[in-house]
Design brief:
Elements lengths: L1 E5 L3 H12 L3 E5 L3 H9 L3 E3 L2 H6 L6 E4 L5 H10 L8 E4 L5 H12 L4 E8 L4 H4 L2 E5 L2 H14 L7 E5 L3 H29 L7 H8 L8 H12 L15 H11 L5 H12 L6 H14 L10
Parallel strand pairs: 1-2, 1-4, 2-3, 4-5, 5-6, 7-8
Antiparallel strand pairs: 6-7
Helix pairs in contact: 8-11, 8-12, 9-10
């Protein structure tokens, strides 16, 4: 099938390459001339403007956005609406808030266009392993995208699915990322405990490799953890600062709104926020309180 991709960064570019490998017709728009030249070398059609991208696609068009969530998506939709025709399909494969997706789907429908949201997981490994895709949108539009989705997924019948109407794909991906926070936090805390037991002299990479096979906690995240520990168990060159894409926050908020207790995901999010406080007043006050009620020793701040 023919597909236009806006945003040929790491994931968008890998998706384009995977589609081209399977014989799909891909046109792409990106702000980088070098990236467009690479697309052309791979057999795709480069477009240096959105107008050129739309012109390169035969109606009914399928335009897939792989751009940062928020204003960039709204701005791109606003720019595209006057160029598109009835029955064209707009796809958001980024990490948009599902509530924004609901709003955008209504706006797009007013122009007789279809809006499909694809929560996409797989990161830099997706090119070779395939992407996990949680798809929301109208049945007809999703069915038209099936050839591309089957190519991008780990297999035609696995790793992707049409989960519901517009907004549902990004909602499922939001919760997926919240779960990811919790799993990562558990691994990180567990390995920290192992590292702290210095008298055993544990080889953390060895432990990770043992757990990767046959263990009930084996997972792809554990595979990646093993890779990281193989490179440097001390993690000496890594600062204790953990970013978040925003989806963990959205998951926690949704859990609160739905009266669903989610302590593990919430605590994992708080831990990420806590990692960014170099001079934490909270931790200082906790130490002071422990000293007040129990006489516990306080570690003095180091002088500059």
């Amino acid at each position: 099938m023919q597909l236009g991709i806006i945003g040929l960064g790491k994931m968008g570019g890998n998706m384009a390459e995977r589609l081209l490998r399977d014989g799909h017709d891909v046109a792409g728009f990106d702000l980088s001339a070098e990236t467009l030249a690479e697309l052309e070398r791979d057999g795709g059609t480069p477009a240096d403007t959105l107008e050129a991208l739309v012109d390169a696609l035969a109606p009914p068009r399928h335009v897939w956005m792989m751009i940062p969530a928020g204003d960039p998506v709204d701005d791109t939709i606003d720019a595209l609406l006057p160029m598109l025709e009835a029955e064209d399909v707009l796809i958001d494969g980024g990490n948009s808030n599902y509530q924004d997706t609901l709003r955008r789907a209504e706006t797009v429908a007013e122009h007789d266009l279809h809006y499909v949201d694809v929560g996409t997981s797989g990161g830099v490994w997706g090119l070779e392993e395939g992407y996990s895709m949680m798809v929301g949108g109208p049945d007809t539009a999703v069915e038209r995208l099936r050839p591309a989705l089957e190519t991008l997924a780990p297999g035609p019948d696995k790793g992707w699915g049409h989960v519901g109407p517009a907004g549902s794909g990004h909602f499922v991906k939001m919760v997926h990322n919240g779960i990811e926070y919790g799993i990562m936090q558990a691994y990180a805390e567990g390995f920290h405990i192992l590292k702290a037991k210095e008298e055993f002299g544990l080889d953390l990479h060895q432990v990770a490799e043992i757990w990767r096979f046959g263990s009930v906690i084996r997972s792809w995240l554990l595979d990646l953890t093993a890779n990281a520990l193989k490179e440097d168990q001390a993690l000496g060159e890594i600062a204790p600062w953990v970013s978040d894409s925003g989806e963990g926050r959205w998951t926690v908020k949704e859990a609160i709104d739905l009266d669903v207790p989610a302590p593990v995901i919430t605590d994992a999010l708080i831990s990420r926020l806590d990692s960014r406080v170099e001079d934490s007043y909270t931790h200082k006050l906790l130490s002071a309180m422990r000293n007040q009620f129990g006489g516990h020793a306080m570690k003095q701040a180091e002088e500059d």
